[in-house]
Amino acid sequence: MMVLRKLWKTLPVSLRKTIVLVIGSTLILIGAALIVLPGPFTMPLVILGLVILAVEFTWAESLLIKAKLHVKRIDPRKLRKRS
Length: 83
Known about the structure:
Layout: H1 2-10, H2 13-36, H3 42-54, H4 58-73, H5 76-79
Helix pairs in contact: 2-3, 3-4
């Protein structure tokens, strides 16, 4: 793991940001597409995309913090359907 981190830091900043932007945005777009298309794992993909983007972008880190705060506020008992 340390070898990967050192290798990552040796890459030029513009290349690192491009790689992170492509991978993170792809995950978010797939997660967004799964909202309307049939398929599981919508939110985990969006959150994973934000985590990846937060590695290099501070705006993504602030969005990730806001998302974590919203998740903490969700009461699972309210999500259950009553019959």
